Prior knowledge:
Largest sheet: none
Order of helices and strands: HHHHH
Shape: globular
Number of strands: 0
Amino acid sequence: MYANPAEVYRSTDQATMSGREIEAAVLTKAALKLKECQNNWEADNRDQKLEEALKFNQRIWGIFQAELAKEDNPLPAQLRRDLLSLSAFIDRRILETMAYPSPEKLTIVIDININIAAGLRGSPANEPTLAFAEQPYAPAFE
């Protein structure tokens, strides 16, 4: 039973989302977590929030990498290569930010997440997705 009506809506919304919508929502959530850290850089709990946001982004991009590397991935080969290259860049930026935190380092990852999410939302519904396809919402991202 949900204690909050918003939880009921969120649960129903997630159950009816397409793969592209899920990917866009997860990327947007990841960007917002990073943006919150960037906007509240001097907060007492910054290190904890930053680690959480960076690890969240790592998990997402790790899933994308695994899916993009599969031979049966339906995306065109060049697009897969480009996205894998982009994900390697994001991995490096996340690790660099973990080692040497700086709010400016978050901007590029935020921008990439937001732009990919926007592209996913604007793409035709019958196009293949990056990773999740038509799988149900993954609660690991909560």
